[in-house]
Sequence to fold (286 residues):
Amino acid sequence: MPGMHDTYFDHTVTLVCQHDEQGAFGVMINRPLQLTVGELLAQLDITVEDPGIAGQTALTGGPVQSEQGFVLHNGDREWDSTLRIDDNTSITSSKDILVDLAEGNGPERFILLLGCAGWHPGQLEEEIKSNSWLTCPAEQAILRRTRLRNLIPTQMTVIGFDFGLNRTGVAVASLLTGLATPQCVLYAKQGQPDWQGIDKLIKEWQPKQLVVGMPRKLDGSDSAMKKTITRFCTALEQRTGLPVYTANEQLSSREAEQRLRSARQAGRKRKIRKEEIDQLAAAIIL
Fold:
C-alpha cells in the first residue's frame, strides 16, 4: 500500500468479499494469529479431533469486529450466514460452520479468521485512486487444497525442508501471503533422500526457491549435521535447478512439538507423531 498512512495494513493481502453502493467488506489473508484453530474453537467449548484442522493457524481478518469469527471457504455448501464471493468462494460467520469444521463435516478448503476490514461508500475507491492499494483480480487458485486443508496461493511458492537422515519434513509457503503450511514427510530410501518424492513436489508446486533448515548448537556453533545437510543442498540445487537457501532451525523441532502439544490440550486426544513434528518444523523454518 504505497500511499497509505495507516500502518495496520502494511504488507497485507486483502480479499474484497463484497463491494456495492453501501461500501465494501473484505478480509486480510496473510496475517497469522498466535492461535491455532483448535485453541480458538476451544474458547467456544468446541472440540476439534482432526489434528490437521486443530493445528492449523488462524488469521487476523481485520480491525473491524475483531472478536467475530469468519470462515473463508470453497463455495460447495452454504451455512446460515454464508455470503458468496464468486462461484467457487464464500465466507461464513455463523457458529454452525465452526461446529461442522470440528466434527469433520465442514468445507473442504478454508481459513478461519478473526475480524474483517470495512469501508464506507466511496472510501475504497478513493484509497485506490490515491495509490493506497495495489489491486489484482482474485484467483480461484487461492482456495487450492493442501494436506491440512489450508489456503495457500500457488503463485510465488517456496518449499521448505526439515532434513533428517530417516525423515524429511516438508512445508510449502507463499511469498505473496507469508503463510507456511505443513505438507508431508519424505522417508529416506536406502540411505538416500526420496528424490522421486521431491521431484513430485517440485512439479506440483513449481516453487521459485527452496529453503533447507540448518541446525545449530545452542551456543551458535555448527552441528554435526552441517556437512550432510550441505551435501543435500548441493544435490537439491543441481537436481532442481532452483536456488537453495539455508535457514537457522536451532529450535524449530522443539517449537513444533510445543505447538502440537498446545493443540492437543485444546481438544485433540491422540498422541503426537514424529512425522507431524517434522512437517510443522519445516513450516516454522519458512
Q: What stands out?
A: The chain has two domains: 7-143, 157-285. Residues 31 and 59 are 6 Å apart (CA to CA). The first strand starts at residue 14 and ends at 20. The domain at 7-143 is CATH 3.40.1740.10 (VC0467-like).
